[in-house]
Amino acid sequence: MNFKKEPFFDGNSEWEDLGDGVSRQFVGYNSQVMMVIVKFEKDAVGALHQHFHSQITYVAEGKFEVTVDGETKILQKGDGFFAQPNIFHGVKCLEEGQLIDAFTPFREDFLKD
């Protein structure tokens, strides 16, 4: 397994197009933690889902309708949320924006072979 070993992130790394107005960029990761920037176009959706990872998300730009464990709130720049393992969560982008996601352990499923 390859891990990102560079100690610095300069924002010039490649964006991965996930389709439907969503793309992501890896900041850094190892087997214990991963940080990802996720860019959303207006009305793009991060569908309700769950995973065994702990996830902390910070709203870097924009406005999002966020649902965590059945509770929905509107979050904007400077806000964030925490999703415990195996709790359903998802977002709808109300104003174009970016989320910064941190996961532990890292999201092996995000990496290409």
Structure description:
With 113 residues, the chain is mainly β. It contains no helices and eight strands. Strands 1, 2, 3, 4, 5, 6, 7 and 8 form an eight-stranded antiparallel sheet that branches. The N and C termini lie close together (9 Å).
Summarize this structure as a short list of keywords or feature phrases.
KdgF; 58% strand; Cupin_2; mainly beta; 113 residues; eight-stranded antiparallel sheet; RmlC-like_jellyroll
Topology, please?
Blueprint: E1 16-19, E2 22-29, E3 34-40, E4 45-49, E5 54-68, E6 71-76, E7 80-83, E8 89-104
Antiparallel strand pairs: 1-2, 2-3, 3-8, 4-8, 5-6, 5-7, 5-8
Domain Cupin type-2: 37-97
Protein name: Cupin domain-containing protein
Given helix and strand content, the structural type is: mainly beta
pLDDT averaged residue by residue:
93
What is the CA-CA span between the terminal residues?
9 Å
| Uncertain regions spanning at least 5 consecutive residues | none
Note the quaternary state here.
single chain
In angstroms, what is the radius of gyration? 14 Å
Strand content: over 45%
**What coarse outline follows from CA principal-axis ratios?**
globular
How many runs of DSSP E, i.e. beta strands? 8
Pfam families: Cupin_2
Domain Cupin type-2: 37-97
Protein name: Cupin domain-containing protein
Quick overview of this protein structure:
The chain has strands at 16-19, 22-29, 34-40, 45-49, 54-68, 71-76, 80-83, 89-104.
